[in-house]
Amino acid sequence: MKLETVIQDHLNKLLEVKTDDQFTVESVYYRGDTLCVSTQLGCPVRCSFCASGMKGLIRNLSADEIVSQYELAVSDGLEIKNIAFAGIGEPLLNWENVKKAFWYFKEKGLKCSFYTTGFPVKNLKELLDLPHSGVNISFHSVYDEKRKQIIPRGEKLQDIIKTLKDHLSNLSKRKKKLYSIAYLLISGVNDSPEELEELAEISKELGIGVSLLKYNEIEGLSYRTTTDKEYEKAFLFLKEKGVRVTLSNRFRTRKIGGCGTLMVNRMND
User: Taking a C-beta distance cutoff of 8 angstroms, is the pair 188, 20 a contact?
Assistant: First the structure.
């Protein structure tokens, strides 16, 4: 693999890494110390709001290809303290290779966090027991039928919630802060007071917070982002319900490397 080009704005750097079979996979360097790595070429989950899975799954990345994203970034002079398994692909669907890469990063003294849909749940259980630095589980709806439309390939919410309950029951409040529900707010889709109310109840029942994400609009998709006023209103609604809620940081609202914007988009067609 080789680092082919670097695209950047004033906050994020989008790294394009070319594989030996001539695909280009994207990873993102942000916050001055964190590298968001991809785990698959394309994605089989095919979330309906996301650019990363538009072409479906091409293939899994090997452990070496995941690690190479870090090694190439370091060789380019970037200082990295944290790895986020949050790029293209569902980490749990390439689990054996992801685990190998995880342990490599841990041996390097890096902190590792995960963003996942929780599918398949048997691998989620194993992930939760790793010495990670954070797990964010994508809900994006609290209703199974609607969630199935948003995340076509995913576990039933009740199975995910039960897995989380079993794991979290013996954790301290401090350790529970490593976990959160990722909820991508999409205008007119999952932002009703009724759905946010149910989200608040689930969050409080589990004892974990909510990462309320702002949607990055993708060309060719019908979904629309909420206005800043609507986004703030949803945030305050959850907060008033007693939920520990955080907003998308400035790095995850960028067109370069924002939520759902990474692609395998420069390949031999």
Answer: no
Shortest CA distance to 118 belongs to which of 62, 170, 181? 181
- Taken in order 186, 191, 195, 196, the sign of the CA dihedral is positive
Radius of gyration of the CA atoms of the chain, in A? 18
Cis peptide upstream of residue 152 (ω within 30 degrees of 0): no
Give, in order, the Cα–Cα distances in Å from 26 to each of 93, 109, 235, 251.
18, 23, 30, 16
One-letter identity of residue 234: A
Whole-number pLDDT of residue 10 = 54
Helices 95-107 and 63-75 pack at an angle, to 10 degrees, of 40
Residues 165, 227: Cα–Cα separation, whole Å: 34
Please, are residues 262 and 88 in contact by the beta-carbon 8 Å criterion?
Answer: yes
Beta strands across the sheet bearing 135-138: 2-8, 12-18, 24-30, 34-37, 82-85, 111-116, 135-138, 179-185, 209-214, 245-247
Q: Which of 229, 224, 216, 226 minimizes the C-alpha distance to 261?
A: 216
Per residue in 71-108, pLDDT (tens digit) is 999 998 999 999 999 999 999 999 999 999 999 999 99
Q: Which amino acid is at 52?
A: S
Provide the pLDDT for residue 9. 60
Task: Please state the pTM of the whole predicted model.
Answer: 0.89
**Segment 17-58, tens digit of pLDDT:** 889 898 988 899 988 999 999 999 999 998 888 887 777 899
